[in-house]
Amino acid sequence: MWRRVVSASHFTFAHKSIANNKDVCKLKFWEAFTTEIPLKEKGTFQRDKTPFITFVLGGPGSGKGTQCMKIVENFGFTHLSAGDLLRREIASNSADGTMILNTIKEGKIVPSELTIRLIQKEMESSDNYKFLIDGFPRSEENRIAFEQIMGVEPDIVLFFDCPEDEMVKRVLNRNQGRVDDNIVTIKKRLKVFDALNLPVVKYYMEKGKLYKIKAVGTVDEIYKQVYPVFASLNFEQVRE
Ligand SMILES: Nc1ncnc2c1ncn2[C@@H]1O[C@H](COP(=O)(O)OP(=O)(O)OP(=O)(O)O)[C@@H](O)[C@H]1O
Ligand SMILES: Nc1ccn([C@@H]2O[C@H](COP(=O)(O)O)[C@@H](O)[C@H]2O)c(=O)n1
Ligand SMILES: [Mg+2]
């Protein structure tokens, strides 16, 4: 089990984030995190910390989920996969379930407000303040809606850059029963990725927030590029 602890140097970083995001905060989403809640025990998470948000981008099968699991283990992040949250809505027979299922089958993008509502709910009910938001934003529209609704920008953005043929191979071998893991839908998802997701990658590159990871090789080889990104942020490492 990892401990929810953070080194003193993170406080400096968190304050810097507050200053950077001051103009867009508007006390919406932040209110949940700025409420003073007494510590339950020494060294546990304090809810008054600024959330540290990492967007995790990359094409279908580029390895986002796989690498997120390792970051969670080593650095105590909470992993929120937009795709998983949407699949959970389908499984729970929610009113939007059929629409979400049809959208996923077509490799298209679910309306931003719906996906953001699911992400927001998870963040607000979490005791953690470090989040990996995987597979979001998938489009400029997703990105802008997130900023407007949540009143916050990501601190950093990871981009897993993987050749198409490798992504197709991985997805076809995934074997998790996903309705979109077939060659017809994968081709559609790759087109959507190029047309809608790459502009988001470009946006964050130009903002200086993007960490591009060469997503070829073994899982451990790729993680060797990911690890230093988080280690350099001075979060206390919770497990080697
Ligand atoms: N470096 C790797 N080499 C070979 N296979 C990998 C590698 N990384 C992940 N995989 C496998 O490829 C498949 C896709 O990985 P993963 O689910 O992490 O991708 P993803 O980016 O989250 O995809 P999606 O966007 O479709 O959810 C999984 O079966 C995973 O085990
Ligand atoms: N922001 C998002 C994220 C995902 N979707 C839909 O879910 C599908 C699967 O997503 P994965 O991240 O698990 O690959 C994706 O192809 C989209 O149909 C979405 O609409 N918006
Ligand atoms: Mg995934």
Automatic annotation (TrEMBL):
Keywords carried by this UniProt record: ATP-binding, Cytoplasm, Kinase, Nucleotide-binding, Nucleus, Pyrimidine biosynthesis, Transferase
Gene3D superfamilies, sorted: P-loop containing nucleotide triphosphate hydrolases (3.40.50.300)
Gene Ontology cellular component annotations, sorted alphabetically: cytoplasm; nucleus
One of the GO biological process terms: pyrimidine nucleotide biosynthetic process
UniProt binding sites for a ribonucleoside 5'-phosphate: R87, K108, I109, V110, G135, F136, P137, R138, R178, R189
Family designation: Belongs to the adenylate kinase family. UMP-CMP kinase subfamily.
Assembly and interaction partners: Monomer.
Record field: catalytic activity: UMP + ATP = UDP + ADP; CMP + ATP = CDP + ADP; dCMP + ATP = dCDP + ADP
Record-linked InterPro entries: Adenylat/UMP-CMP_kin, Adenylat_kinase_CS, P-loop_NTPase, UMP_CMP_kinase
Its EC number(s): 2.7.4.14
Protein name: UMP-CMP kinase
Domain notes: Consists of three domains, a large central CORE domain and two small peripheral domains, NMPbind and LID, which undergo movements during catalysis. The LID domain closes over the site of phosphoryl transfer upon ATP binding. Assembling and dissambling the active center during each catalytic cycle provides an effective means to prevent ATP hydrolysis.
